[in-house]
């Protein structure tokens, strides 16, 4: 008899459970934004990352990012050039990538007349290194022609990773054509800091490194040595964030803050309320379980934190 009673109680619980609302609440502190450090700037190129799926322009500003890379191929993802300019001043804080097939229209277009920085991506690696030929790269003569036609108040930026003497010599010749305005943004994943120093001391002495070029998808390169060394060589870091996951980018920003590239960090305490929407009894809460639906997110408090609250090697779960 006792087994029958237990069975009936179990069945009755299932029948009435359909009218029970299953709710899961939890609270957590999350980074809300950073304040740029005086004399330092962080820029970003969020290529192939839509505003809706990653961050809005305003969120990038809130996260202390002050400069924006842009290119024509970004337009399907990022909308119009003018929209970016609402958040990132064209003259001072935007970099426009030049391709062999677009520079004629870009340089003569009044819409882009305020651009201060033009960028050509690794022109001689693409043109002269056999294993790295891609697309329709610039020849030396074409880049030279572009430099001679550039407005005198603009800067031309190159990215280069080669240590080959013949490639270095081609860049040196271009820099001599425009010595007051040409800047270099080197990147070499495996030995970043060592390569940056060689560019400054050996390969291109006298050519200033305007900013350091780093890949957000390679979070391991955002280590203390690279970031501290970068601060000695340049006042800006540009983040290449092609298809970068949210948490990768937040980890990068956290590490930049821990190495003084940002001044302050603001956090917000949120209360999350999730409701079970499945037909059966609820499974253990899992934020990735689609049957647990977010019904509210409430801001409870804000706080400023200090670097002493964290360790560089221990990235907080919510970054």
Can you walk through the features of this model?
With 319 residues, the chain is α/β, with parallel strands linked by helices. 33% of the residues lie in helices and 24% in strands. It is built from 12 helices and 11 strands. It has helices at 2-17, 57-62, 75-78, 81-85, 90-93, 103-107, 123-128, 140-149, 165-177, 192-203, 224-233, 246-258; strands at residues 23-36, 41-45, 67-70, 94-97, 117-121, 155-159, 182-184, 212-215, 236-240, 262-276, 292-305. Strands 7-6-5-4-3-2-9-8 form an 8-stranded parallel beta sheet. Strands 1-10-11 form a 3-stranded antiparallel beta sheet. Helix 6 (103-107) links the parallel strand 4 (94-97) and strand 5. The chain is elongated, with a radius of gyration of 26 Å.
- Tally of strands: 11
Poorly predicted tracts of residues: 1-17, 75-79
Q: How does the helix and strand content classify structurally? A: alpha/beta
Going across the major beta sheet, what is the strand order?
Answer: 7-6-5-4-3-2-9-8
Radius of gyration (CA) equals 26 Å
Mean pLDDT: 80
Largest sheet: 8 strands, parallel
The rounded distance between the terminal residues' Cα atoms is 56 Å
Q: What is the number of helical segments per DSSP (H or I, 4+ residues)?
A: 12
Q: What order do the SSEs take from the amino end to the carboxyl end, as H and E? A: HEEHEHHHEHEHHEHEHEHEHEE
Q: What helical percentage do the residues reach?
A: 25-40%
Taken as a percent bin, the fraction of beta residues is: 15-25%
Shape: elongated
């Amino acid at each position: 008899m006792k087994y029958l009673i237990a069975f009936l109680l179990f069945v009755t619980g299932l029948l009435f459970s359909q009218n029970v609302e299953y709710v899961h609440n939890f609270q957590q502190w999350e980074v809300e934004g950073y304040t740029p450090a005086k004399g330092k700037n962080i820029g970003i190129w969020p290529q192939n990352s839509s505003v809706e799926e990653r961050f809005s322009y305003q969120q990038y500003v809130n996260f202390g990012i002050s400069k924006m890379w842009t290119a024509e191929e970004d337009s399907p993802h990022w909308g119009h050039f003018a929209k970016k300019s609402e958040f990132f001043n064209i003259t001072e804080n935007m970099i426009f990538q030049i391709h062999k097939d677009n520079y004629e229209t870009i340089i003569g277009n009044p819409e882009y007349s305020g651009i201060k920085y033009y960028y050509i991506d690794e022109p001689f690696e693409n043109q002269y290194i056999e294993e790295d030929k891609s697309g329709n790269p610039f020849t030396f003569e074409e880049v030279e022609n572009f430099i001679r036609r550039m407005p005198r108040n603009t800067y031309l930026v190159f990215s280069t990773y080669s240590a080959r003497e013949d490639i270095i010599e081609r860049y040196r010749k271009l820099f001599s054509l425009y010595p007051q305005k040409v800047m270099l943004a080197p990147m070499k994943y495996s030995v970043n800091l060592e390569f940056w120093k060689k560019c400054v001391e050996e390969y291109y002495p006298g050519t200033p490194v305007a900013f350091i070029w780093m890949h957000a998808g390679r979070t391991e390169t955002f280590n203390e040595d690279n970031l501290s060394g970068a601060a000695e060589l340049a006042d800006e870091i540009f983040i290449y964030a092609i298809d970068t996951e949210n948490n990768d980018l937040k980890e990068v920003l956290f590490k930049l803050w821990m190495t003084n590239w940002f001044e302050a960090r603001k956090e917000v305490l949120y209360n999350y309320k999730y409701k079970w929407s499945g037909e059966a009894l609820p499974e253990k809460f899992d934020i990735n379980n689609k049957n647990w639906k977010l019904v509210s997110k409430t801001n409870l408090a804000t706080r400023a934190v200090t670097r002493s609250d964290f360790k560089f090697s221990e990235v907080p779960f919510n970054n």
